């Protein structure tokens, strides 16, 4: 394959990855706590034979998670919690501790506060949070302090990844990190609210059209280049 072919194929591969990321963003535009995903393109420049121009290839395979604040929606739910500012809730899953901004929790049969799919919410010490079955009222202060009928229960922890670049998204709203997490106190927890997805559907669809257009142009160029090479081979074979 010649240089032009490599250049077009690397570009098309990156655009395909970006289309997948945009489609996933649009699909999760109404998912509580979802954070927009983008793609980072890098350019590789390689020297060719002396006297020839250099070869430039764009590679798009690094994913980026937006940390923009999502809109907050009031629900009035006792265990609906939203983070205003940076930070994540820490939950316990079979794959290990995970970070999430999806703050719609509910007590399970044992009274432990869990996500909708059953994963336990952890406090600022890494322990599960237990809600007494006879509690008449539960309140959560902005610093995460949770109390039942005026008596303190626990303090909900907020955390940040030690290495923000190590975040690995799974199942849409859960993030795992190999570098560990550290406590964070620079944000407020709001009771009776949930954070919506930080995806703007109009912006994403506009971007999708732009990327599709760029992909189509790349395909046409590739087809034209293929026809040119076939023509050269046919001429030389006569």
Automatic annotation (TrEMBL):
Domain (Flagellar basal-body/hook protein C-terminal): give its ranges: 191-229
Q: Which GO terms describe its biological process?
A: bacterial-type flagellum-dependent swarming motility
Q: Which residues form the Flagellar basal body rod protein N-terminal domain?
A: 7-35
What are the residue boundaries of the Flagellar hook protein FlgE/F/G-like D1 domain, all occurrences included?
A: 82-148
Q: Does the keyword ATP-binding apply?
A: no
Subcellular localization: Bacterial flagellum basal body
Q: What is its main location?
A: other
> Which keywords label this protein?
Bacterial flagellum, Cell projection, Cilium, Flagellum
Instruction: List the GO terms this entry assigns under cellular component, sorted alphabetically.
Output: bacterial-type flagellum basal body
Q: Which family does it belong to?
A: Belongs to the flagella basal body rod proteins family.
Return the protein name.
Flagellar basal-body rod protein FlgG
Q: Which organism is it from?
A: Celeribacter marinus
């Amino acid at each position: 394959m010649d240089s032009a072919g490599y250049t077009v194929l690397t570009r098309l591969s990156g655009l395909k990855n970006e289309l997948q990321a945009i489609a996933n963003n649009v699909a999760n535009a109404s998912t509580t706590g979802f954070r927009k995903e983008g793609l980072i393109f890098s350019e590789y420049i390689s020297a060719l034979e002396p006297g020839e121009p250099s070869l430039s290839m764009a590679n798009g395979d690094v994913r980026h998670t937006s940390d923009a604040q999502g809109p907050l929606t009031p629900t009035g739910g006792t265990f609906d919690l939203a983070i205003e500012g940076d930070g994540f809730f820490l939950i316990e899953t079979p794959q290990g501790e995970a970070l999430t901004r999806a703050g719609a929790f509910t007590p399970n049969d044992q009274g432990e506060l869990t996500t909708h799919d059953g994963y336990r919410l952890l406090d600022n010490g890494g322990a599960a949070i237990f809600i007494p079955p006879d509690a008449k009222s539960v309140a959560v202060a902005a610093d995460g302090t949770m109390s039942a009928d005026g008596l303190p229960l626990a303090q909900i922890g907020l955390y940040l990844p030690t290495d923000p670049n190590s975040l690995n998204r799974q199942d849409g709203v859960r993030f795992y990190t190999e570098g560990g997490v550290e406590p964070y106190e620079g944000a407020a927890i709001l009771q009776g609210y949930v954070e919506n997805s930080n995806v703007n559907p109009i912006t994403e669809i506009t971007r999708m059209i732009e990327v599709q257009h760029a992909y189509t142009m790349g395909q046409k160029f590739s087809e034209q280049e293929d026809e040119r090479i076939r023509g050269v081979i046919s001429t030389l074979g006569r």
